[in-house]
């Protein structure tokens, strides 16, 4: 009833995290709806989005509020997707209305991210909206511009980098890009960001992610654009850029070998090449990193690289590693475990 709905408003103002009240509120909205085409009446959807926006202002990480917004919009958005998949004719006016409502939701999320650019709930909700609605290409282009601005504001915003990956893949994060030009553009973009701050992990992971994706899917069915030769050229190009960056960094007051993420990216690229010469070259940054690990006071900076080294060693058996690197990695791992306090005598 309308009275019960009003009571839920009072309860939620007192405790916006009460998921039972939110669920009961949706039941009330559904029972009060006179719409035959959607679960909730259009006017109820709009008024409740405004209601949740007011509560969300002081509760930007309240899961129940974000879920309520999704539950309100989901029936309308999914009905739109079904119609598009079935190829049903529909009026241009209705289509514009759906797109406009989705844009309004994106604008609401923009306001939340202005206050906290790493709000996981906001990013998750944004990607749901983009994945649910078949937006025109112009929307994805504007999303790239939007996320570029956020990266400029905070280059270490991992959430913004993750969203850039999502946008470049048009929401299909498990399918590789089929255009070599698009891949090169994204790798160039990330390398330029890494050159500004080589100590920033985000652009390096972005580059390695694209290279690993290209290597995995090169020459596969449905991805004829990405040939093995193209991938090899990309990997070699990135290796050259890293070598150049190491040289530039060496001419500054910074210690090149302490740039953990640059070194980690170089190890990844040498692994991708996979030939004996490249695998032998891996020993140089690894052994230097071991030395740094034991001599630098700020050892936490090297923690992530040591974990990466452990993963690297696991790619080959101990005998091969000993032969390649000319040292006994069983002892190195033992020393690291003592240093980290993770040694287990049992």
Structural class: mainly alpha
Determine the number of helices (DSSP H or I, runs of at least 4 residues): 17
Calculate Rg over CA atoms: 26 Å
Question: Which geometry do the CA atoms define?
Answer: elongated
- Give helix % range: over 70%
Number of strands: 0
Question: In this structure, how is the largest beta sheet organized?
Answer: none
Strand content: under 5%
Elements, N to C (H/E): HHHHHHHHHHHHHHHHH
What is the overall pLDDT average?
79
| CA(first)-CA(last) distance | 65 Å
Poorly predicted runs: 296-303, 313-332, 338-343
Question: How does the SSE layout of this entry go?
Answer:
Elements: H1 2-14, H2 19-32, H3 42-56, H4 63-86, H5 92-115, H6 120-132, H7 137-153, H8 158-168, H9 180-196, H10 201-217, H11 228-250, H12 260-273, H13 276-281, H14 283-295, H15 303-313, H16 318-325, H17 329-340
Helix pairs in contact: 1-2, 2-4, 3-4, 4-6, 5-6, 7-8, 9-10, 9-11, 10-12, 11-12, 12-15, 14-15
Fill in the keyword field for this structure.
about 350 residues; mainly alpha; elongated; 17 helices
In short:
The chain has helices at residues 2-14, 19-32, 42-56, 63-86, 92-115, 120-132, 137-153, 158-168, 180-196, 201-217, 228-250, 260-273, 276-281, 283-295, 303-313, 318-325, 329-340. It has 346 residues and is mostly helical.
Describe this structure in words.
This protein is mainly α. 73% of the residues lie in helices and 0% in strands. The chain has 17 helices and no strands. The protein has helices at residues 2-14, 19-32, 42-56, 63-86, 92-115, 120-132, 137-153, 158-168, 180-196, 201-217, 228-250, 260-273, 276-281, 283-295, 303-313, 318-325, 329-340. Helix 2 (19-32) crosses helix 4 (63-86), helix 3 (42-56) runs antiparallel to helix 4 (63-86) and helix 12 packs parallel to helix 15 (303-313). The longest helix has 24 residues, at 63-86. It is elongated, with a radius of gyration of 26 Å. The N and C termini lie far apart (65 Å). The model is unreliable at 296-303, 313-332 and 338-343 (pLDDT under 50).
């Amino acid at each position: 009833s309308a009275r019960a709905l009003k009571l839920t408003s009072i309860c939620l103002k007192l405790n916006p995290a009460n998921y039972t009240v939110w669920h009961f509120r949706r039941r009330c909205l559904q029972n009060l709806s006179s719409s035959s085409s959607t679960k909730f009446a259009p006017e109820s959807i709009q008024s409740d989005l405004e209601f949740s926006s007011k509560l969300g202002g002081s509760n930007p990480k309240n899961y129940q509020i974000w879920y309520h917004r999704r539950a309100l919009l989901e029936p309308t958005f999914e009905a739109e997707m079904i119609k598009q998949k079935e190829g049903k004719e529909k009026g241009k006016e209705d289509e514009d209305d759906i797109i406009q409502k989705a844009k309004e939701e994106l604008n609401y999320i923009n306001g939340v991210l202005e206050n906290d650019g790493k709000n996981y709930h906001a990013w998750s909700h944004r990607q749901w909206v983009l994945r649910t609605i078949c937006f025109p290409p112009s929307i994805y282009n504007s999303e790239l511009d939007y996320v570029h601005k956020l990266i400029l504001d905070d280059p270490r915003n991992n959430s913004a980098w993750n969203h850039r990956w999502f946008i470049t893949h048009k929401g299909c994060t498990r399918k590789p890009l089929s255009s070599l030009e698009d891949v090169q553009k994204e790798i160039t973009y990330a390398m330029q960001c890494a050159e500004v701050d080589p100590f920033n992990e985000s652009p390096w992971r972005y580059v390695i992610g694209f290279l690993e994706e290209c290597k995995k899917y090169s020459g596969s069915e449905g991805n004829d654009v990405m040939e093995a030769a193209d991938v090899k050229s990309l990997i070699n190009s990135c290796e050259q850029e890293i070598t150049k960056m190491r040289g530039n960094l060496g001419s500054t007051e910074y210690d090149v070998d302490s740039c953990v993420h640059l070194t980690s990216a170089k190890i990844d690229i040498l692994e991708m090449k996979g030939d004996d010469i490249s695998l032998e070259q891996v020993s140089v940054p690894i052994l230097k990193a071991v030395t740094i690990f034991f001599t630098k006071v700020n050892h936490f900076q090297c923690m992530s690289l040591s974990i990466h080294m452990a993963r690297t060693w696991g790619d080959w058996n101990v005998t091969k590693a000993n032969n390649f690197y000319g040292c006994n990695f069983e002892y190195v791992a033992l020393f690291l475990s003592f240093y980290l306090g993770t040694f287990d005598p049992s």
